[in-house]
Amino acid sequence: MIKAWAVAFLVAFSPVAAQAQQTAAELFARLGAGRPPAASPVATVSAWQRYAVPAVVADGRPRIAIVIDDVGVNVPISRRAVELPGPLTISLMTYAANLGQLAEAARGAGHELLLHVPMEPEAGDVDPGPNVLLADAPREELQQRIRWALERVPGVVGINNHMGSRFTANRAAMDTLMAELGRRGLLFLDSMTTGRSVGKAASKAAGVPYLARDVFLDNEPDVAAVRARLRELEAVARKDGSAIAIAHPKAGTVQALQEWLPTMEERGLVLVPLTALVVKPAAIAVRTQ
Q1: Each residue of 14-52: pLDDT tens digit?
Q2: Closest CA to 171 of 214, 205, 147
Q3: What DSSP string describes 109-152?
Q4: CA gap 106, 85 in Å, rounded
Q5: Entry pTM
Q6: How many CB atoms lie within 10 A of CB 158?
Q7: Are 77 and 284 in contact (CB under 8 A)?
Q8: Tens digits of residue pLDDT in 97-120
Q9: Beta strands 158-163 and 215-216: pairing type?
């Protein structure tokens, strides 16, 4: 009787793969074994899952994720933001010079990490910073800038846009970005700097997890204004079951959050890392970084 290992030998060393597969199937059929068993697909864990911070069980309570942008530009206030109780999601500015130390401090404090990537705004007189992603850049140049940004800090779960009202409205440019995010297993948080963003459609087409900002906490950075935006954030979370806020390392913001974060439990709210709000598919088989 021909053993299964002999069939495998024939398949492995046949000069024509298709003919080898047919031969193997015929041999198994003649031996009464039917078709050879199909190999089970091996699910891999994406970067956004691998580096996700565990979330507490919400038990039906509204969930809130707070993202702190621009971390690293102003180091002293960035350090104060990193010291806030978490889990927060810390978005490190790609062109900051001290990202390694801040990333280590943020991880040590139990926070999740994003990269804050400069993208082209509509206003031509606004400087978004070096290595900005330009909507009309040649594809190869755009890919180089994207890869430079994504390789600034390891261990991030994804990115969100710094400015980007022009870039995020350009489908071709966003498709190039999403292809790279998908290849690396990263998520995209849309800062929603424009109502014309195609981030959701481009993310879906590329299989990239997508989230969108609900409330900016500190367009007006004084403490009273941030408190008002926190009340707005609570209302959104209670209505929708979850909400995402974006804030920045500013003195008024840090003070308001220092006051508000310890009161979340008594308010019936749960603070979660951003990844806890990703809608996970039933079966995940994505690329590793």
Answers
A1: 443 444 444 444 433 443 444 444 444 445 899 999 999
A2: 205
A3: TT-EEEEEEEE--S-TT----TTPBPTTS-HHHHHHHHHHHHTS
A4: 11
A5: 0.83
A6: 30
A7: no
A8: 989 999 999 999 999 999 999 999
A9: unpaired
The token pair that represents 209 in the structure block: 């997890």
Answer whether the bond into residue 76 is a cis peptide, omega within 30°: no
Please give the Cα distance from 53 to 168 (Å, whole number): 27
DSSP string, 34-71: -SPPPPPP-----HHHHTPPP----TT--EEEEEEEEE
Residue 288 CA: distances (Å) to CA of 51, 91, 96, 204, 246: 12, 21, 26, 19, 28
- Residues 254/74, Cβ–Cβ less than 8 Å: no
**Residues sharing a CB contact under 8 Å with residue 80, sequence separation 6 or more, in sequence order:** 249, 254
Helix (H, G, I), strand (E, B), or coil: what is residue 90? strand
Element of type H or E holding 261: none
Quote helix, strand, coil % in the chain, to nearest 5.
40, 15, 45
With 0-12 / 13-18 / 19 or more C-beta atoms within 10 angstroms meaning exposed / middle / buried, residue 77 is: middle
Amino acid, res. 125: D
